[in-house]
Amino acid sequence: MKILAIESSCDETAAAVVEDGRRILSSVVASQVEEHKLYGGVVPEIASRRHCEAINGVVKKALEDAGTDLQGIDALAVTYAPGLIGALLVGVNFAKGLSLSTGLPLIPVHHLRSHIASNYLGHPDLEPPFLCLVVSGGHSHIVEVKDYTCMKIIGKTRDDAAGEAFDKAARTMGMPYPGGIHLDKIAESGNPLAFVLPHPKVEGAPYDFSFSGLKTAVINLIHNASQKGETLSAADLSASFRKAVVDSLTGNFLRAAQDLGIRQLVLAGGVSANSLLRRRMEEECRQRGWQCYAPPLSLCGDNGAMVGAQAYYEYLAGNLASTDLNARATMSIE
Ligand code: KG4
Ligand code: ZN
Question: For the whole model, what pTM was predicted?
Fold first, then answer.
């Protein structure tokens, strides 16, 4: 079954053709990051406009690259929640129009579920049940994936998402948006023990996260140093910050897996590209004899292929949209 999938939840306009939820026939991503960089973050209104301009060409190219046209497609899929509402609406309305004109069924896909599904594309052997750490620019969840379309939130952030914390700390250090990837690179040459940073815990909720205190601690360190006319080593500060975030993420994730008796652990979302997070999880799982999976680096960020992967399983579960499908800025993964 060939699915043409569309993604426009944030600042990438993306489309892909995916076969049977596992095989990428094409994947096209038009990033707007260079434009948002000028403002230090995503400007929602600009994002919507750029999606409008790009979507037709991106979908056309995805069909061309897959060596097909709409006649060779069996179903359409689109990200409908959560995300920037104006951005989501572009993809949803485009997909609805395409569905109406072709008569093809339309499959609505939850953005975080599709991040999880990026792992099915890289790991043909991976099947639920497993425990997943979903870490992106907007969310930090520990999710029990009981089946492809049945999920339970075990823990989540009480304030900032992990990606957001990375981006804000990086911005304070003068790195361009999105800073997570720059901070990760610079951290490789730094000393993670150079600065003592807080490792916040949420009282009474051992699987929940809190990153805002950590972010503020870094901002305060930088401001105090600059008031004294000193500059701190960006490499050391990045390494110490990255270690604190990864300690918190992996600590809660491994504890939840231990308590729930789950031995298959999966990473997903933009922050799953973080090199320390990937190394640490691989090592911790190897020591315990557990299985550890992470998406291929090319599929960690937003893309259409992951939407096509999850859509296949939503279709099998009978989750189809009707013509009144609407976008939603927030929606639980459950
Ligand atoms: O999943 P994603 O592409 O978009 C959302 O759905 O939010 O995640 C983007 C986030 C950004 O905050 C970005 O800085 C972060 O993922 N990110 C990273 C790395 N690569 C991307 N954070 C830490 N280390 C990285 N290597
Ligand atoms: Zn995302």
Answer: 0.97
